[in-house]
Amino acid sequence: MDLRIEYEDKASAFLLQAAQDNPKWIASALKSAAWKSQRVIKEGIKSGAPNGKPYAPRSLTPKQRRLLEAALGHTPKRTYPLMGRLRQAVGYDSRRAKDGIVTVGWLSKSAVLIGSKQQEGFQTPISDKTRRAFAAAGIILRRGTTMTNTAARPTFPVMLPKVQQVAADTVREKIISYVMGNTSRSTKTSTRTYKVYQ
Q: What is the predicted pLDDT for the residue at 152?
């Protein structure tokens, strides 16, 4: 899932006319809105409670997770964030900013796959090797257990209201600042282009 930010002509007549006379203002304002929006989403993921709605708790403690990783032959980590490194995979696509559209979402196809699974929840079959690793880590599974369950941790859907507010406020503030004579918009350039995957 990604979030699409579009410019709509619902501003006051004065701001609307000013924006129409200066189309670069809209593109610039939308880029700022997208940048702030992806920052808001990253902060929500980092907090463990996007838009104030806590993620489902872990099924294993950090200590159990480290023991399990070691039993599976992996190198244990110091910390295990609920969404892994997905926070780093959130970004925005501003290639259509001139058309009045920017998109905030995952920056790679693998992030789309992993992020979708994390947001929707998923099950993983338990192999004999996995069962032995759980036992070695001191975690006893019931004999009839054939799957491990990872709870759904919605992020983009619950962040949408906040992103909409941040984006609208940013676009309005930017256009007003341009009307008031702010020209800093044109002093910075970047050749960096991101692509958001669905």
A: 95
State the Cα–Cα distance between residues 96 and 101, nearest whole angstrom. 5
b/e per residue 162-184 (b: at least 16 CB within 10 A): bbeebbeebbeebbebbeeeeee
Residue 23: pLDDT band with limits 50, 70, 90 = confident
**pLDDT tens track for 46-64:** 999 999 999 999 989 999 9
pTM over cut 0.85: no
Residue owning tokens 């006051």: 12
Residue pair 138/64 in contact (Cβ under 8 Å)? The answer is yes
How many Cβ atoms are within 10 Å of 31's Cβ, its own excluded?
19
Instruction: Please report, as a single letter, which amino acid is at residue 63.
Output: K
